[in-house]
Fold these 3 entries.
Entry 1:
Amino acid sequence: MFARFADLDDKISHLEGRLSDPQLVNNQQEYQKVVREHSHLVKLNAKYREYVKIQQEIVENKAIIFDEAEDQEM
């Protein structure tokens, strides 16, 4: 489901490179389009990273719970 978000860092880097292009700065309409896309992807990437972190914490917490339940039975 989230596989398409895995390459957001590459897309953001590409857009940052484009934003430093003097020719793009001269074309204000295209420049504004790239700025909006970059801003959107940066926000999206932050939410995706938060999601991945929470998923990892869930896995770790389940492992702790399982280990504690197993230890109590012994």
Entry 2:
Amino acid sequence: MPDGPTATIRAHVLTAHLQGEAVLLDLDTKRYYRLNSTAACIWKGLEQSLAPEQIADALVAEFSVEPATAQTEVNRAIGDLRARGLVT
């Protein structure tokens, strides 16, 4: 059973991946967002159209965190990205 909804990156958001981080540009608002390594990993999962559970699995593998912690972080990040209008 999914723990959170799948998110889709909006077409007006551009991404640049830089040494474990990511920079997003919202073309509608002209705002930049800098993502740390954890958030960049989550963003990459969204770019690959992965389900939140699959993104959490990637966090567990990359950062050696507990699965529940990873899932909580994925859900929180997706909620934040959605609130900022970067994903639907």
Entry 3:
Amino acid sequence: MKLIETEIPGVVILEPQRFEDERGYFFESYTRKWFAENVCDTVFVQDNESKSKYAVIRGLHYQLPPMAQSKLVRVISGKILDVAVDVREDSPTFGQHAAVELSGEDFRQLFIPRGFAHGFAVLSKEAVVQYKCDNPFSPEHEASIFHDDPKLKINWLIEPRKVIQSHKDNYAPQWDEAPKFRTCKNLYEK
């Protein structure tokens, strides 16, 4: 597995080593020991999957402590722009984002630590996305930010008039009104 840094420390791309022959391919998508030694010592407890069509934007979503989540995102088929926004008030990258294209062709994954809002835009006809979370979904701790807040300056690579979102995401709070994490320290303590 190759580890690739993004512009935001802690948000990293994982690129697996693939073995291909006339039968097809094989690769390890996750190994706990390697992940703990190279990325973050956390335990994933929930796997999620979504299928979405072109121009769907899901997010920006996150959970507040004590149920904050980190996510390991991969695309099974199709192509997305995956985005992580730092919502940790004492972080040097507070309010900044990392945006990475992931596809079923490149097999890359994006790790998004606790303290980040997460969202993605579907850039292909459709996309199937899977992600691991290290805390279960908790409705009373969920938060969101409107995807197109001008303060975030995210280029979603989709014309705004074509964007498809849930009712809930369409009415998510703007950046200034969304809840933030007070600290970026000790986010992995249970």
